[in-house]
UniProtKB/TrEMBL annotation:
Matching PANTHER family: HISTIDINE KINASE (PTHR45339:SF3), HYBRID SIGNAL TRANSDUCTION HISTIDINE KINASE J (PTHR45339)
The protein's name: Stage 0 sporulation protein A homolog
Enzyme class: transferase
TM regions (residue ranges): none
GO BP annotations, alphabetical order: phosphorelay signal transduction system
Organism placement in taxonomy: Bacteria, Bacillati, Bacillota, Clostridia, Lachnospirales
Gene Ontology terms for molecular function: protein histidine kinase activity
Amino acid sequence: MNIISNAVKFTPVGGTIHILVKEKASQKAGYAVYSFCIKDNGIGMSKEFQEHVFDSFARERTVTESGITGTGLGMAITKNIVDLMGGTIHLTSKQGEGSEFIVTLECELANKTVQDKQSSCPKAEKKHLDYSGKKVLLVEDNELNREIATEILKSLGMKVDCAADGMEAVEIMSSEAGNQYDLIFMDIQMPKMDGYTATREIRTLNDSKKANIPIIAMTANAFDEDRKKAIKAGMNGHIAKPIDVNVILQNLDRIFGQNGDEDTMAKE
């Protein structure tokens, strides 16, 4: 979506944008290779900028720059997501003529038997609680991860503030500002103070509302041992990176009461 958004943003009125999806056979049984091509005849990019387009905060200086908003993290996030999915992203561009992005992903094919069963026995879509307006403190030291998580949480209607490490999170929660938050998403491995220590510090605050705020761990490690450490530190949930919207909702529904048991943490 970010590539398409950029194509729209950098293509003037009257320009054209073409989107093409191709399926090819994969050497791996049960898989297929998909190519997503997004081509526009917009402003294009210089050769120099193409070398840095996937860097964080990269934005080429052009005559239209003043009318473009954003952090410059969009393409870096896109590249990160494609890499995590084991895919590739290729760029061809010429300044003044336009750009072409090709994303290639190998995807597992859905089981036809399962599809047939699902179509013959339709299930009601699972409904989640509405988290619009919930105020979240996101504690994450990695700038790119912070940007991705912020966008995901905002897509759920949440309002997000950020802290760069555990020590900053404890300082915020110890102050008057801590009263505004409904939930904390806490990274584990951070400089100055890790997520476990920060959680233990927050749990000892004199203000019971702040001391008992729901805290969900975010970690690259999805082992059962890490989950147990999160519980021991006083956390209410544990989600593995890269974070998944459905897993977030499962944890939130459980914590805020839809699925009952707050002592059982959802496994990823």
